[in-house]
Design a protein that fits this description.
The chain is α+β, with helices and mostly antiparallel strands. The protein has helices at residues 5-12, 22-47, 56-78, 91-108, 125-139, 147-153, 155-164, and strands spanning 144-146, 172-174, 178-184, 187-192.
Amino acid sequence: MMELQYKNLLTKYKVNEAQLPEDAKEGIAEIKNVIRGINLIKTKSEKAGKEYKVRADVTRRLARLDRWVCGEIIDYINDTDENADEAPEDADDILKQAEKDAAKAATEGKSDKTEANDNTPAADPKGLKIDKELKALFDAGKTSLTIDEIRSSARNAYDVIFETYERDGDNGVATSYYSLIEQQDGDYSLTSK
């Protein structure tokens, strides 16, 4: 299962869950419900002799919910109200998707393995959006950006950076035409390939 970023924020800012506003608490409860549900699905699958792996779309939806909770925590810490009012994902919907995936894998008699029809990679719609965002920034002369600037002007790129961020690793995003790579904590350099 993925590492939950909201837990890192709570630790980093020494905030207790009980101190958080209701929206953040509800979001954390939703995340915990999803994880409990996924663990239950895994257990049921294993008892039935099947392997269940959490699919990427379920993980992405959970990450989206985690990101929203992080926004609520940041709002609490900064005493602002910039995060979206509504959570982007509903725990029940995520669990229904996970259950559907498990049922599909069980009826197919195999785990979550993607079969390729040919060796030609398909264009990634999110990648195309990111490329368009980075092109607009580059064309506007923006070659040095902070994470906050990326968050406000290149939301898809920000989402990928947030989902894949490693504290001690190389961070950023690259497309066929542009690279947005972290130079220092929170400062990114945009280059054309």
